[in-house]
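Re: export button greyed out
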Amino acid sequence: MSAPPPRPAAATPLAQFRRAGFGFELLARASSSAARAGLFRTPHGAVPTPAFMPVGTKGTVKGVFPRDLAAAGATMILANTYHLHLRPGEDLVAELGGLHRFMDWQGPILTDSGGYQVFSLGHISAIDEQGVTLRSIVDGSPVRLTPERVVDIERKLGADVAMAFDHCPADPSARADVEAACERTRRWLEQCVRRHREHGGEETGQALFAIVQGGVFEDLRRENARAATAHDLAGYAIGGVSVGEDRAQMRAAIEHATPHLPHDRPRYLMGVGTPEDFFDAVERGVDLFDCVTPTRHARNHNAFTSRGKLNLRNATYRSDPAPLDPECPCPACTRYPRAVLRHLCTSDEMLGPMLLTLHNLTFFHRLLARIRAAIETDTLADLRATLLPALQHPARDPATQ
Amino acid sequence: MSAPPPRPAAATPLAQFRRAGFGFELLARASSSAARAGLFRTPHGAVPTPAFMPVGTKGTVKGVFPRDLAAAGATMILANTYHLHLRPGEDLVAELGGLHRFMDWQGPILTDSGGYQVFSLGHISAIDEQGVTLRSIVDGSPVRLTPERVVDIERKLGADVAMAFDHCPADPSARADVEAACERTRRWLEQCVRRHREHGGEETGQALFAIVQGGVFEDLRRENARAATAHDLAGYAIGGVSVGEDRAQMRAAIEHATPHLPHDRPRYLMGVGTPEDFFDAVERGVDLFDCVTPTRHARNHNAFTSRGKLNLRNATYRSDPAPLDPECPCPACTRYPRAVLRHLCTSDEMLGPMLLTLHNLTFFHRLLARIRAAIETDTLADLRATLLPALQHPARDPATQ
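Workaround output, generated via the alternate export path:
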C-alpha cells in the first residue's frame, strides 16, 4: 500500500456520480492513508460511510426490533437472497410489498447473492459453468441458482442494492481454483449485468454491485477488478475474504483490488469483521462492511466494549455493579449493571441476548461513526493508536481496575 | 353466587383503607354481579383493577423490554421468590438496589412466595410441619424454605407486595390433604405475619398478602379465609386454583372464599388465566390476576386475537396479508402482515416470539381495560356476551371470511 500525496485535512466535497436515485459523494480523504469518508445515496436514504451493515439473513436482524436497529445507529442492513428464496420465497415477499415492508425497515437494504452460501454450504452444493445446485437447508430439495435466476430473485425481493452472483473459492491461495472462480465470476457478472438491464437497471430503484474475486493473487485481483469495473456499476465489492485466511492475506486482497476500483463508487468488503479489520480496511479505501459478528456474539453472551471483549456468563461479573461499558449509551449499558446482564445470560433468558445484541450493534455503529469523524479531521491514525490497544484485550477484572 | 341488590350504574367512590403507601379504593360496582372496579395503591404507583400482572419469574418477563411492557399496558408485574432465591440470590438483588432496579421496572411488583413451586415441583420437594425442602433446579442442592425464611427473602428482594408462604395441595378435591394444607397455611400465615411485622410491616414499603386455601370445599375455604382476614392485611389471594381442576371447581373455589374476604382489600386469583376465566372471576369479585399464558403461548407461536386464538406456524397464514388482529394497536399487528409473522415463527427467529409476546400482553391488558370500563358503565354482562363467543373459537380461515 502506498500513501497518496498529502492533502488538506478539512473535509473536501468531491464531484461524484449520481444516477437514478443512487450516488456516492466523497466528503473527505485522509492524508496518510487511502481512507475516505463519503455518503452513499440510495432510493431509501443516504448512508454515511464508512458504515457497518447489520445482517438480517432471513429478513430479520436476529433479536432486534427494527425501531431499535435504527436507534443503535444502523443506516443500511443486509438480507440474504439464498435464504429468502428458500423461505418464504421471493414471490411472497414481492406479493407482500417487497423486502422493505417485509422487514419493516424503510432505510436502504442490500441483498447478498447466495455466492457466499456456495462456499459456506460447500458440502451440499455442486458448481458448474452455468451455475450452482445446492440442497435446500429447509427441506433437502435441490435448488438451482444461475446468474440470471439470482438477479430475478433479487429484483423480486426489491432491495436497494443487489449483489451479482459470484463464485467464492474455498481456498484463496489455491491458484488454479481461484483462477477458475475468477473466470466464472467474470462471465457470470456479464450475465447478471445483462439481466439487470433487462429488468430496467437502476431506474427500477435497484442498483447492482459487482464482486471482485482473486484470492491472495495480485494479478488475479487486478484482472478481476478490471473486468468488473468495465461494467460501470453503482458499487464494487471485494469478495473471497473472511473465508479462513489470515489477516495479512485479507489486507493483501484489499490492497490488490482497491487500486483498480473507481474512486467515485463505494467499495464493500464482504463478511468483515472486527474493530481491527475496520481500521485495516478503511485505511485501504473500503467504505462498507457487513458481518454477523456483533449479533452472533451477543447470542453467545459476548460483548464488545471500549475496554475489550467480555463474556457475560463469566463468574467475574456475578456481583459487578458497573455498567457493561461506561462509554456506551445503549439500554444494556444505561439501565442494567453487569451483574443483572450476567444473571439474564446464565439463566438463558431472551432478554440477555436481546440487550447484548443492541449493545454490540451500538458499539459497532459508534466505532464506525468515530472512524468517519476521524477521517474528516484527518486523525484516523491517532484514533487507531488510542482505541485499538484497549479494544483488543479482554476487559480487566473490575476488582483490579 | 347470589347477586347483590341493584345499585346505581354510575361509578361510586367508596371509602377504603389507606395505610403506609398502600390503599385500595373501590370506584364502581356492577349491579348484577360482584364485579368491582378499583384502584390498588402501592409505593410504586397505583394499579387500576381488575388487572392482569405479567409474570417475570426470574426477574424478566420473557422476551420483553420493560419499556415495551409498560407500552403494552402492564401496571404491576410478578417475580418469583423461589427462583430468584436460587439464582442470583436475594442478597445480590438487595446489594444491586432491589428488585425494581434489578428488573428495570419502576412500577409495582409482587413476589410469589414459592408455595406454588412446592406443588409444581412436587416430585423434588418434601413438605413437613415446619416448611419445605426442595431440590434446587439450578444445581440439585437441597433448599429449605420456612415461613420466616420466605418472608426474609421477600424483604430483601423488596417487591411492593410479598405473598405469604402457603401450602398449595396437589388435588383440591382430596379432603384430608386439603384439610392438612389449610391447617399449615393458617399456621404459616401467623408466622409470616409475625416476621413481616418484625421487619417493620408495611412501613418498609412492602405489604403482605395472605393466601386462602381450601380446595373445592366450602367450609374449608370459609375457615381458611376467616383465619386469613383475622390478620387485617393489605390484600388476600385465592390459591390452590389453576392446578388442573375444572372450570366449575375454580368458580366454586372463588365463590366459597370471596364472601369471607373484606370488600375494601384487593382479591388476587393466583395463576389465572384465560379470557373466559377473567369474566368468571371478575363477576365473582376478583381484582388481580397473573398467569404465564400470554408469554408462554407467544413463545409457542400462539396468539390471542379478538377473533380467537391462532397458531402462527399454521400453513393457513402462509401468504395472509391481513394484520394478526385488526383491532390491536401493538407493533405485531400494525407493522407486519400475518404472513411475515408466520415466516418469523417457522424460521425460529427470535423476533417472532418477541412480537407475539408484545401482542398477547397487549391483548390481555386491553381485555382487562375493557372489563374495567364495562364495570364502570355497568355493562359487564353485555361485554361478556359480545366478546366471549368470538374469543373462544379458533380464528376463521381468512379464505372463508
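Chain A is about 40% helix and 20% strand. The button fix ships in the next patch.
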